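Format notes (please read before filing issues)

Several people have asked whether sequences and structure tokens are stored in separate files. They are not. Every record keeps both together, in the order shown below: the sequence lines, then the token lines. Line labels are part of the format and must not be stripped during preprocessing.
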Amino acid sequence: MAHAIRFYETGAPEVMRWERVAVGEPGAGEVRIRHEAVGLNFADTYFRTGLYPAALPAGMGVEAAGVVEAVGPGVHHVGVGDRVTYTGSPLGAYSTERVMPAASLMALPDPIAFETAAAMTMRGLTTSYLLRRIYPVKRGDTVLLHAAAGGVGLIFLQWAKLLGITVIGTVSTEEKAAVARAHGCDHVVIHKREDVAERVREITDGAGVPVVYDSIGAATFQASLDSLARRGLLVCFGTASGPVPPIDAMQLAVKGSVFVTRPALADYIADPAERAELSGELFDHVANGRIEIGINQRYALEDAVQAHRDLESGRSIGSSVFSV
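Then the structure lines:
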């Protein structure tokens, strides 16, 4: 019998329940997939708390890797027995198996393990669009990356090094600083004891950086704005500390005619051709060892409550996965 994590109301981690569920046969355009590993992402907590809307009751999770067990009518790009990975709606990845839209699936190259895929599909594709789509970052640029020792951060640091980009990374502890440095971070700022914007100005000889990548949100928004060079871009791609405050348009002019964007991964992988291009480069880097995916926390699916507690406490480093 299949099992899944479900929630019937929004709130603290304790709202999640481990339940037996019935999994039917796939309909038109659908597949049934048996999960081998499931990704744990900070975005999962947004659905649980209600920051991101979900029709309740609902499943949890948007990322997993596994094997196709059955296909419905009209499915041609994957077949029974294929190794696949995915990220995106609908919710329900925290499960041993499920029926889902086939269009979400990406073929998983043989050299990439299921656990690795579950740890990097969302984070890796996020890094891919940050570096390859949202801003024309080029060799020699210096950028600011918050949460440099996080799941996206550790992939970003390695990819940025391949592209010849200098990264100033923020972290919360000495332990995380060491991890960030080991993954290629050029300048580490411990934000709990240093003024981030001041350090950025020192490192850049007063110029600031052309782009800031900020997944923290409320707590770092002002420092991010203050770190930008004239006509720089602030990329707010996460809200780990809460939503960013309302934006005063005049302040963008005062700060140097800067720009702010709040992108979502879904809009960069909606087109199958673009998704294939972004995932292809990511998978090639990982399969050939140019980018290493470290898994620092592993949980059983039934321990999702503890996993969310750890994630929200800031104790997690790098990527986390559920073993199935």
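For reference, the curators noted about this record: The first helix runs from residue 42 to 49. The chain has a mean pLDDT of 96.
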